[in-house]
Amino acid sequence: SDSGVMSGAMLFIKEDLKTNDTQLQVLAGILNVCALVGSLTAGRVSDWVGRRLTISLAACIFLAGSVLMGLAPNYATLLVGRCVAGVGVGYALMIAPVYAVEIASAEIRGSLTSLPEICISFGILIGYVANYFLAKLPLVYGWRTMLGLGALPSAALAVGVLAMPESPRWLVMQGRAEEALVVLRKVCNTAEEADVRLADIKSAAGFIEGDAAPVPRGGGEGVMKEMFLHPTPAVRRILVAALGVHFFQHLTGIEAVVLYSPRIFKAAGIATRNQILAATIGVGVTKTVFIMVAILLVDRVGRRPLYLSSLAGIIASMACLGLGLTVIERSAPHHGAPWAVALAIAAVFTFVAAFSIGVGPITWAYSSEVYPLRLRAQGASVGVAINRI
C-alpha cells in the first residue's frame, strides 16, 4: 500500500522540504530499484533460514524504513528510509506467494496465492483514504504520519508470523520430515491427507522411500547454475513461462493506467477535482472487486483459461482507450465527441477489470507453482526482480 500513501504524501513533502520535481521522482522510483535488490537476495535467504523467518525479516526491514521516513528531518534521511523500505518490499513480494504455495493444499492454492494481489489493491485504497484524513494535520506532521504509519502493520506481521507454521516443503528440504508432518497435520483436514501430502513432498524433493536418512540439501546452493547455466529442456520451458508472465504483467501498462488514471480522466474531459477523485477511487474499487472474482474462479476454471481471457480483455480495452483519446485530441476543443469521452472512461474501467481477473493475480499463483521444489524460492525471486525492472 506504500505507493497509495506516497502518491498523496509527495504533494506535502514538496511543500515542506522544498524539493524539486526530480527529487520527488527519485523518491518515488527508488523503491523499485531497492525492491529489486531485496527480491534477488530473498530467494537465497529463504532457502537458508526458512520461509517464516524471511517473512519476519521482510517486515522488520520495512518497519525500519517506515520509522526512518516518519522521523525524517530532511530529504536525504527520507530517501534512505525509502530505500530501506524498498528492500523490505522486495523480500515481501517474493516470499508471500512462495509461502502460500508451500503451505496450501492443492484445492485452494490458486486463490491463496492470489491473495497478495487483493491485499495490495486494498492497501492502495486504504492509502488514498488515509491521505484524505491526514492531510488535515499541520504540514510538519501530516506526511510524516502518512509514511510512518506503515510501521504498525509491519510490526504486527514481524511478531505475528512467529505463530505461523514453517513451510513443510522447506522442512523436508532440510531433512526434517518429522517436523514437516507435524505442520501438515495442523493444516490438513485428516491425518491421511497429511501423510499423502508428505509423501508427495518427499518425491518432489527427490527422496526415494526406503532410503536411509535423506541428505538435506538445505542452503539452496547451485540453484542459479541449474536454472541459467545448465538448464534441462523442462527447466528451460518453466523459466520461459514463469519469467515471461512476470515480464508481461507490467508490460500491459497497468502501472501507467493506475498511476495516471486522474490524467486520463482529465484528458477525457472530467473537470473538477472531486469528480476526478471519485473516478480514481472507482478504479481502485473495480480492481479489488474483480480480483475477488478471480479468486473465486481460479481453482475452478483453471489458470490458463482465466489468463487468456484476461489478455483478450486487455487488448480490446487498450485499443478502445487509444481510439477514444485520439478522437478527443483531434476533435476541436469545443465540439469534443461525447461518444469518445464515454469510450475512453469505459475503457479505463474495462482495462482494470480485465487485468484484475487474470494477468494481475494469476501471475503470482502460476509463477510460484510451476517451479520444481528445489528451484522454487530462487526462481520466484528472479521473477519478482524482472517484474520490478
UniProtKB/TrEMBL annotation:
Q: Name one Pfam family in it.
A: Sugar_tr
Keywords, in A-Z order:
Membrane, Sugar transport, Symport, Transmembrane, Transmembrane helix, Transport
Q: Does the keyword Transport apply?
A: yes
**Entry protein name:** Major facilitator superfamily (MFS) profile domain-containing protein
Q: Does the keyword Membrane apply?
A: yes
**Which stretches are transmembrane?**
24-43, 55-73, 79-100, 112-135, 141-164, 238-261, 276-298, 305-328, 340-366
Q: Where in the cell is it found?
A: Membrane
MF terms (GO), sorted A to Z: carbohydrate transmembrane transporter activity; symporter activity
